[in-house]
UniProtKB/TrEMBL annotation:
Organism: Nitrospira tepida
Protein name according to UniProt: M20 family dipeptidase
A GO molecular-function annotation: metal ion binding
Domain Peptidase M20 dimerisation: 193-353
GO biological process entries: proteolysis
Amino acid sequence: MSEFNRRLLQYLADNRSRFEDLLGSMVEVPSVSMDPERVKDVRRMAELGAQILKDFGAEAQVIETGGHPLVSGGWTTGAKHPTVTIYNHLDVQPAQEPEWKQDPFAFLKDDGIYHGRGTTDDKGPALTALLAAKFAIDQGLPLNIRFLWELEEEIGSPHFAKTLRNRDAIPKPDSVVISDTIWISNDQPAIAVGLRGLLAVRCSLVTGSKDAHSGVTGGAARNPLVELAEVVAACVDAKSGRVKIPGFYRDVLPFSATERKSFLRSGFDVPRFMKAYGFQSLRTKNAAEVMERIWAKPTFEVHGLTGGYQGPGVKTVVPWKGELKASMRLVPNQRPEKVFELFTRHVAKVNPSVKVECDGMLHPFKGWSTGPYVEAIQQAIRAGFGKDPAFTREGGSIGAVVSMEKAWKVPILFLGLSLPEHGYHAPNERFDWRQASGGMKAFATYFAELARMGRLG
C-alpha cells in the first residue's frame, strides 16, 4: 500500500463522524428551491455551504444570481497548476409524499445509512467530494480545486448561465467533474457520457366559471379533463410510450454500436431495476430495450392531470377547468425550443381551446467517453470501489452542465455516487457510508491523477 493510500484510509477513519455531522446539518435545512415559502431556507443553505467551505480552510462566497444564490469557493495553490471545478447542487425536491417513514428534514443515521431529503441528491455527494478535496490539499497536490454549489438545479438552473459570466467569483477551470448521477446497481459503478434534456409543459383549459352538476349539465357541458385526456392520447401511445407528435423524432441522434455494446456489457439487471424503483411491471422486460428507453431515447410523460373534485368518494360534477402537467425528455441533437414549437402546433390542431405554456427547458448533453480525463475517472472509480465502471447515458437532466460547456468549453466528466435504491426524487431518500467512503477514495485518486497530468492542451 502506498503512503498516499495509507494516509487516505486513516483520514477516512478520522473524519467519518465529521462527515455525518455535517451531512445532518445540511439535510435539516429544507432547501426546496421550487417552494416560494422556502426562500429563506434556500438562502440559509447557501450560507451554511459557504461556511462549511471556510471551516475546511477554503475561501468561499455566496453569489447573487437574481434568483436563489449559489456558492463558489475552493483552494488556489498556484497559477501554473491545473484547476478542476466540482459541481453539485444543494437545493432539493419537495418531500410531501405520504410514504415517508420519518420527517424528511430530520436527519436519521442508522448503522452507516443516512436518511433524509437531500442525502443522495445531492448534499451527500457534495460533502464527499469536499472531504476528498481537503485531503488532497493537505497532501500538497499541485492542483487548484474549486467548488460550485448551485441552489436552483431542481428548477432548471434559470440563472446559472448568466451567473457564470462573473469570472472574478467563478473562474474558468481546466476541467469539470459532476457528482450528481446514479450507478447502474449497488455493485456496478457507472460513468455517464450523456444526459437527456427536458421540456416541461403545462396545458390548461377553462370552459366555465364553476363546477356544474353532471346530472343536470352532463352531455351538453364540455369537460376539460376529458379534453385534456384527448390531448395526452394524441401525444403519446399509452402502451408503447411512442411519442405521436409529428416531427418529434426527426433530429434524434442514434446511439452508436459502441454505446449499445457498452450498455450490454454494463450488467444491467431488469428485476433489480424493478425492485429498486418499486415497479410491478414494465413496458418491456428486454434488458437492451429498457436501457435504451431510459438512457438514449426521448420520452413523453404525464405528471399530473388536475381539476374537478379531488376528495374522497365521487362527487358528480363537471369541472370548469383543468390542467395537464407533462414533460418530454430529449436526447442529443433535439432542441427543446423546436420541440416546444412542434408540441404547441400539434396541441392546437387537437384542441385550439387549450392554452400551452412552457415550464422550463434544458438541452441534452453529449459527453466524453475517451481521453486522459476519462481514463483518470476510470482509475479513480477502481481505486474507490474495486471495480471497473460501465459507460452509460444518464436518463435525467442537469441544466448547469450545458451552461458550463458553452461558457468554458472544457472537458466535463461525471463521478456519480448515488444508487438506484437511494431514492432520487422519491420518499425515504438515503445515502450511505459505503458510497461516501468509496467516493472519497475515488475523488482523492482523481485529484492525484489530475495533479500528475498537469495542464493539458
